[in-house]
Amino acid sequence: MNGATEVSTGAAVACLGCAAWLLGGGQAAAGRARLLLAGGSPVDNGPPGRTRALREWARIRGRLRVEWWSLAAGLVLAVLGGSVLPVVAGAAGVPLLRRLRRAIGERRAQERRGDAVIALCGALAGEVRAGRQPGEALLPAARDSDGLGEMQAAVLAAARFGGDVPDALAAAARQPGAEGLRGLAACWRVAVDQGAGLAAGLDRLEAALRAERDQRADLRAQLAGARATAVMLAGLPVVGLALGAALGADPLHILLHTSSGLACLVAGGVLEGLGLWWALRIMRGAEEAAA
Predict the structure, then answer these.
(1) Which of 33, 177, 230, 242 would bridge 110 by S-S if both were Cys, CB 3.0 to 4.6 A apart?
(2) Could you tell me the residue range of the domain that residue 167 belongs to?
(3) What is the pTM of this model?
(4) Which spans are transmembrane here (predicted)?
């Protein structure tokens, strides 16, 4: 029995080592040095086959994402528990974690667009106060405000070639996080059609957008404790399994190789997922209500 346990432990360690190698890269520092010294491509200091292998490895590493940790964890649990079910569960978790990663990336991009809109309003107000005309002032202000995405080129083209700047700003405002550009388009129309001061309107718009961003940040900080608590509670079953194994029991064998254990595993997994989804839904609803 001890021999089997040692074999399982050694196999698990080997799986963890392989996962760390794939996800972290065994020679990441050396690969990055080669890329820097070669101006973006691996140094050809060996046979052509080695160079092709380095390029292929760089391409594979570029496609590896954090969601593959789910499959790696499933492989480790499959070795420890002697069952294929953890591998299936780990493979099923890959698309879920990929969706979560993309949602986090979209939220960060949305926040960057919001910051870019605020910076654009402040820079444009400064250029107008310096004596430049609105169309002339928009060019350096929009060029310095990175983060607006592909619509930034359309806004710059409209300002440079005498196009309809408010329509270009309204089109750019369709991007998530860039909704403040609608207010900028309204200020632009009022300033051009009625001769009102553009700088004063931009100052008020910048102050309003900044206050809205600060309110969202404050709400997110208040909900950080609840979110951390939900994640911690979601990880308690894993801690329980580790404690059971440390006390000499074999919880994985019971969960994966007995009918009652499989029933508890399925019921616990469903309840765990529903509880985590419900907690995150409540926090998301609070953020949307505040917005």
Answers:
(1) 177
(2) 112-213
(3) 0.68
(4) 68-97, 228-248, 254-280
The interaxial angle of helices 151-160 and 165-172, nearest 10 deg, is 170
Alpha helices in the chain (DSSP H): 2-24, 28-37, 48-63, 68-81, 85-129, 134-144, 151-160, 165-172, 180-194, 198-234, 236-246, 251-257, 259-290
Which tokens in the block code for residue 243? 């404690």
166 vs 187: CA distance, rounded Å: 9
> Number of C-alpha atoms within 13 angstroms, CB side, residue 135?
11
In a domain, 190, yes or no: yes
Query: Number of structural domains, the chain?
Result: 1
Rounded distance, CA 27 to CA 21, Å? 9
